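TASK: fixed-backbone design
INPUT:
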């Protein structure tokens, strides 16, 4: 028996690792056929030994039983929205306001990130295992979509590394890329199903499926862009948080620029605008964030949005 437990454990570990290489690092080590062979072997073993069931098994990504309705859950820290800037002057004003609030004339270090046009979600990990996933909802409460989130290949079901916080709440954007969207609509057209208007609608429709087996067939992707609650690990900056998330196995947008000045943010905005149409996914601007977590705390937030971040 323990031989079987070991075999199952080994297959799960290997499949998690190959999954990460494929979906997060975009650098697969084995062929799809080899991956499928290992998956089939694990499915057969789990079927023969139902007592070894685990929600974290790579086999669980195919979806589970359909729900009647979504439960709701409160976010332990509200999920705020972002203030908007529409011209360079608004961004310079944002920087002046932060420095005024901090009482400093020093240059502030910022992070600039593509603003993904998808849906905000929160993933809660307890002792390194995905325990709960929810939509942003009204920012205070969201809908529980754990089964749907589990189907997304780039979402780790188990975190990597040694430095795993006992509680970790991460936030990010679920989206469908341009290519995935075209293929999905082609397929729907063949099946005489109504087409999705745009990738964002397709992602929203896929995430709000009561039947996670349907979600599993949709080309959903994720980029994580922040941490909510975290216990047991001390971080000093947003860019450090992103690196930490990456080390735990999360997918982070490689176009994020860290440690830049407000003027470099404006330059980067032009660069990003120039390549917007050649990106493999849709963005609706850029998000600029003051990097220091101490500064973020000191400038705080209004009831609607943080004062340390702005969407351009
Ligand atoms: S930070 C408190 N970073 O924009 C800071 N948001 O209007 C909140 N979004 O609901 C968000 N890409 O869905 C942040 N790199 C990014 C983002 C991003 C897209 C979305 C997010 C949020 C909305 C804010």
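OUTPUT:
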């Amino acid at each position: 028996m323990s031989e079987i437990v070991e075999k199952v454990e080994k297959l799960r570990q290997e499949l998690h690792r190959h999954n990460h290489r494929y979906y997060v690092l975009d650098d697969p080590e084995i062929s799809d056929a080899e991956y499928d062979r290992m998956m089939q072997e694990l499915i057969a073993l789990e079927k023969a030994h139902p007592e070894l069931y685990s929600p974290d098994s790579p086999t669980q990504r195919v979806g589970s039983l359909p729900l009647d309705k979504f439960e709701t859950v409160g976010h332990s820290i509200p999920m705020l929205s972002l203030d908007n800037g529409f011209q360079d002057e608004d961004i310079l004003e944002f920087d002046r306001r932060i420095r005024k609030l901090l009482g400093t004339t020093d240059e502030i270090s910022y992070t600039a990130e593509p603003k993904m046009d998808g849906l905000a979600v929160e993933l809660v990990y307890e002792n390194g295992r995905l325990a709960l996933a929810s939509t942003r909802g009204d920012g205070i409460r969201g809908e529980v979509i754990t089964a749907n989130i589990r189907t997304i290949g780039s979402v780790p079901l188990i975190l990597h590394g040694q430095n795993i916080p006992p509680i970790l709440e991460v936030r990010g954007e679920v989206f469908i890329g341009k290519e995935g969207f075209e293929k999905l609509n082609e397929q729907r057209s063949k099946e005489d199903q109504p087409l999705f208007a745009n990738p964002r609608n397709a992602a929203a429709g896929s995430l709000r499926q009561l039947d996670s087996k349907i979600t599993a067939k949709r080309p959903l992707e994720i980029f994580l862009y922040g941490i909510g609650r975290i216990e047991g690990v001390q971080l000093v900056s947003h860019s450090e948080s992103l690196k930490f998330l990456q080390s735990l196995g999360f997918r982070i947008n490689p176009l994020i620029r860290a440690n830049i000045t407000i003027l470099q943010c404006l330059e980067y905005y032009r660069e990003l605008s120039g390549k917007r149409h050649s990106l493999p996914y849709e963005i609706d601007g850029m998000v600029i964030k003051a990097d220091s977590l101490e500064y973020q705390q000191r400038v705080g937030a209004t009831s609607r949005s943080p004062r340390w971040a702005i969407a351009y």
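COMMENT: Residues 2-23 form the longest helix (22 residues).
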